[in-house]
Amino acid sequence: MSAVEQYARAHIVTDAAQDPPAVPVALRYDPETDPRKVHITLPGHHEWAFARDLLEQGLRAPATAGDVSIWPCGRVQAVMEFHSPKGVAVVQFDSKALIRFLRRTYLAAPVSN
Fold it and tell me: What gap in Å lies between CA 13 and CA 59, rounded to an integer?
């Protein structure tokens, strides 16, 4: 089994008058290290690790586990909210980038019961 890495573009959600430009985000899954978790790295080397099934659930309906919340936003976007002692980051993705990543993780390591 090999690790899955994918880069996506996302928008940091702010209260600014203009939308900030899209930023690169790294999506990573390593079935050798932890087959149940995915990792998302935002600019500035801010990394969150959370359950792969949370990502799957959050693409269909609002889902929360610990410091991470994910929910669909319309038909083609998804929002992730990350909490840390330094504050909150809210990031909006095209859902198809997350779905493509999730599918690749299942090819690398199918769900085991």
Answer: 18
CA distance 76 to 83: 24
- In the numeric block, the tokens 């702010």 are attached to 14
Q: Nearest-5° angle of CA 101, CA 47, CA 31? A: 45
Q: How would residue 113 be classed by pLDDT, with cut points 50, 70 and 90?
A: low
For residues 61 and 6, what is the distance between their CA atoms, to the nearest angstrom? 23
Q: What is the pLDDT of residues 67-96, one digit of tens each?
A: 999 999 998 999 999 998 888 889 999 999
User: In the block, which residue shows the tokens 């969150």?
Assistant: 48
Average pLDDT for 107-111: 83
Tokens of 75: 């038909």
Distances (CA, A) of 26 to 5, 41, 48, 61, 89: 7, 5, 11, 23, 15
